[in-house]
Amino acid sequence: MSTTTTAGGPGEQDAPFRCFGTGDPLYERYHDTEWGRPVHGDAALYERLCLEAFQSGLSWITVLRRRETLRAAFDGFDPERVARYGEAEEARLLADPGIIRNRLKVRAAVHNARATLRLAETGAGLSRLVWSFAPAEPGPAPVEPADVPAATPASTALARALKSAGFRFVGPTTAYATMQACGLVDDHLVRCPARGAGAGDVPG
């Protein structure tokens, strides 16, 4: 999810500055406590990849508002459970009005659960793969939303690696949104209080 809005609209002059989300408590909490904070672990990264895929073509707030329903529908995004889904589970999901009912995205979530398990069997793991594309040094802090890219060479390489590992719905833009959300890069604007909250914290 790339940032495209800033605080400071009508009635927001006295609100704390945020790169995005001001005015919606759910969005504010996500900006302040999650976006750009390091996320590790295969299951956690699998969930974030799923959420970013579901966001494709939609606004991120749409995903946030359905996040808990999505979690419930997909058994907490437990890769082992989702990997066992078949036609009955797909039909159940596509009939659930509480989630984002897109057949390709639902199938990608199931397919990617299986890819996550295959990676784990190799001893590599999804988390290790994703974090191997974290930049060695942080880039310059963006000053304005226009300074934040939609994709980078690193996200293009990550997307290529994920596709080679069997993942779907993981183009360069989705890969970069995952890198932003999971703290591989810090794209909070330079004047944002949330900047520097741990982005790039590669596990040892």
Reconstruct the topology from this structure.
Blueprint: H1 25-33, H2 42-55, H3 60-73, H4 79-82, H5 87-94, H6 103-121, H7 126-131, H8 153-164, H9 172-181
Concise structural overview:
By secondary structure, the protein is an all-alpha fold.
| Annotation field: number of helices | 9
The CATH C-level class name of the domain at 42-181: Mainly Alpha
For the biggest sheet, the summary is: none
Shape: globular
Rg, rounded, reads 17 Å
Encode the helix/strand succession as letters: HHHHHHHHH
Q: Structural class, judged by helices and strands?
A: mainly alpha
Would you give the CATH topology of the domain at 42-181? Endonuclease III, domain 1
Unreliable stretches (pLDDT < 50, length at least 5) are 2-12, 199-204
Q: What is the helical fraction, as a range of percent?
A: 40-55%
The tally of strands reads: 0
CATH superfamily of the domain at 42-181: Hypothetical protein, domain 2
Q: State the separation between the terminal residues, measured CA to CA.
A: 27 Å
Q: Average pLDDT value?
A: 90
CATH architecture of the domain at 42-181: Orthogonal Bundle
Report the β-strand fraction as a percent range: under 5%
